[in-house]
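lol so apparently i was supposed to do this last week
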Amino acid sequence: MEHTMIIVTGATGQLGRQVVERLLTRVPADRVGVSVRDPEKAKAFADRGVRVRQGSFTDPAGLAHAFEGATQVLIVSVDKMGEEAVRQHRAAIDGAVAAGARRILYTSHMGAAASSHFEPCRDHAATEEALRASGVPFTSLRNGFYATSAMQFLGGALQSGQIVLPADGPVSWTAHADLAEAAAAVLADEGRFDGPTPPLTAGQALTFDDIARVATEATGRTFTRSTATDDGFRQQLVGHGVPAETANQLLGVFAAGRAGEFATVDPTLAALLGREPITLGTVLREQLSENGGR
Ligand SMILES: NC(=O)c1ccc[n+]([C@@H]2O[C@H](COP(=O)([O-])OP(=O)(O)OC[C@H]3O[C@@H](n4cnc5c(N)ncnc54)[C@H](OP(=O)(O)O)[C@@H]3O)[C@@H](O)[C@H]2O)c1
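anyway here it is w/ NAP bound
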């Protein structure tokens, strides 16, 4: 059998951890490695025969060891925004090229575009440019918007029933578990997608009006949705200690949503999974039961 080595970064994060879990159902453990900032947090993978090496995108020299022998590297995008994020992603791409990887995969976002209203989508577009410029074949997994992000926006509304958010647009909220399964399927079937994938989304695009209705049906309690002004929402966030820059970035989600940037529903994720993706309603019901909110 041809020798392959798939390296996954961010494997101690929510998405990367699940990607490795799903990958281990398809690929022998000795063909999987993780590059993580804190190897102690990846001990459970090491115990299962996965190669665990320390690597951070802020230490480009150290990536040579972390990515050594890689045939594919999955770069999980970092939890930063703007130039800092793109700089770190470039360091990871350079590290994968230097290691001789023959394909680089990257967790991008649906709607990645230089003109996006949402800063991370502009960062993803810049990273995709860097991937193109690398000269190495790449696959950019254009992940749908995390359903967990919708839960974060709902926040205390899950208890109060009052959803007060800026005007929005439909978003095809998608579960981490499905995106992880899809990433593992693409890694295990090298070259199945080349360049940016179609948007990897769940089967429905919902507004917060729709989510209020779904929550009402799920709980039998009444959920109402009312509209905050963008300025009012910004002030409220800043009043709760959110830095102004972060507040503006969060408002970008709503501006991009209103512009329809996250409205696409695409069948590619379902095809990769061989089943319908998890719905926002399912994620919401899980969250409500964790909160004891039924
Ligand atoms: N599609 C969407 O809707 C959406 C929404 C939010 C975010 N995202 C993007 O998707 C990514 C993965 O999501 P997630 O839920 O798994 O987030 P997460 O749990 O915050 O995981 C982020 C991962 O990136 C790693 N990381 C951060 N800085 C790094 C660096 N300098 N070098 C190497 N690794 C670094 C973290 O390492 P540690 O474990 O050591 O902290 C962590 O494992 C996020 O980071 C973000 O870029 C997408």
